[in-house]
Amino acid sequence: MKEYVMGNGAIALGAMAAGVKAVAxxxxxxxxxxxxxxxxxxxxxxxxxxSVNEKAAMEVAAAAAYSGARALVTMKQVGLNVASDPLxxxxxxxxxxxxxIVSADDPGPISSQTEQDTRRFADFCRIPVFDPSSPEExxxxxxxxxxxxxxxxxxVLFRPTTRVCHAYASIDVPDIFSPGEYEGxxxxxxxxxxxxKLSFANHGMIxxxxxxxxxxxxxxxKNSCEGAASAKAVIAGGVxxxxxxxxxxxxxxxxxxxxxxPFPFPEDFVRSSLEGVSEVxxxxxxxxxxxxxxxxxxxxxxxxxxxxxxxxxxxxHNGELSADKVADILSAFLGIExxxxxxxxxxxxxxxxxxxxxCAGCPHRxxxxxxxxxxxxxxxxxxxxxxxxxxxxxxxxxxxDTCLCMGAGITMAQGFYHTDREVACFAFVGDSTFFAxxxxxxxxxxxxxxxxxxxxxxxxxxxxxxxxxxPGTGRNMMGxxxxxxxxxxxxxxxxxxxxxxxxxxxxxxxxxxxxxxDETEGVKAIIFKSPCVAITKPQGLMxxxxxxxxxxxxxxxxxxxxxxxxxxxxTVDALLCTGCGLCSQICPVDAIGGAGNE
Length: 598
Known about the structure:
By secondary structure, this protein is of the alpha/beta class. The chain folds into four domains: 2-217, Rossmann fold (3-Layer(aba) Sandwich); 224-334, Rossmann fold, CATH 3.40.50; 363-535, Thiamin diphosphate (ThDP)-binding fold, Pyr/PP domains (Rossmann fold); 543-593, Alpha-Beta Plaits. The protein has 21 helices and 22 strands. The strands form six sheets. Strands 3-2-4-5-7-6 form a six-stranded parallel β-sheet, with helices on both faces. Strands 9-11-10-12-13 form a five-stranded mixed β-sheet, with helices on both faces. It has a five-stranded parallel β-sheet with strand order 14-15-16-18-17, with helices on both faces. It is globular.
């Protein structure tokens, strides 16, 4: 059957066509839809889970691969950092069943902390990496990745970037998916238990094996050379290849070399593809990985070849490439005039600024505001974390002073306390992030006698990445209803004597809870519990009465996008308002009501 799917869907269907048995991952844009696609299709015999974090996902999948089953792990590029501990050892131990780790890179970055390049990680841990350039290619290539994984008994990285993940294409999909036969786990401590002696021997084996894989990749069909012999050539990987191919359709006579397997670098293929070429430009997103590999090859072989790319400034280091950017780069490289676009955009107005903002009615806004009001006049530091609530840094809330990585807000609050005992330290974390990487920091705080307040912003979902379930929601990806894991019980179990649960939309109670915790020594927590507005029905519409004095305090204090001015008068945007009632609680003249709020 033919399906029109996004790139992540193509990756998912390709893995299912390959006979994947176990699928685990942690949600993160641009990778989240892979597991969601698998869950929507018939998956008889396939086990699937959203793991509490990427490390857990890697280890679940590793056990499946040890048993001979095919396993898939999904995450975004920063998630690979979390999973790197088991991955580095897994590279030495190896696998029996095919194991593919999808690490989706995010050039831009569009929704990430970093622009790190998964190809570097493949080189670092010495395992192969596949770099698809389109959804169609991703569908076929991930099946090849499973084959190579089993052929060489190694985990394999699969590195789509944002435009491949989120592009759409028609894919021919098998009617039936079925995991292949597998032997099951066979005990062998000399193989599966990692010791220094085993690591020493396997390190040497890995380096010898990678030479063979590089030779194998030199005949891999997705590495291609197109176009007639020419003095100049373009070498590209990932979606950059698609941009280059589009440009060269109108500018024939230039050789185009595609690198689909950047590590181990297919030197034999590249060397033969560049015969007669004197000048080459490398097109790739993020780091100059292909460019550096090419320069190493040239240096080893004493080749006479001029190389342009990121290292000489011909290609930008940061951000995404695009068809238009590549057209500019290749026009300069080839010394030709860039053709006029079909639509002249020279006089087009600039796109409006659309900064990210907390949704109208988001309970996080109320949580931040309550803390801000309770701590007025106090020297306070607010440590944020990764999630929707990172947007609490925006004015007028201005309630996120730091944001480093998942879970770091909790431990950074401790660091601030230990270096300045006069400061009140607060850490904000979401419910999903609490389970993913927050619990260790809380244990650390209790053990090391910190004085801090934890604010758990519990909106009962993983909101930023698409509302995936987590251990606190009471359901899993196999469709089962399970016992909810209680954040309150966890906090009390690790030693917190004061844990207060409050509805953040009750401003008075929330402020009182914050003050009570601030007056208590040690580690204490407030669970601000209210569901995400995207998964609940609106409570109605707030209305502004004639008592309004147009002081605009409601706008200045909380910055809700549903509060706007029309002809200089404060009004409510009926398309955005959810009736949360926060604005009615801060109006100095009680001019706002409705939706059950007086």
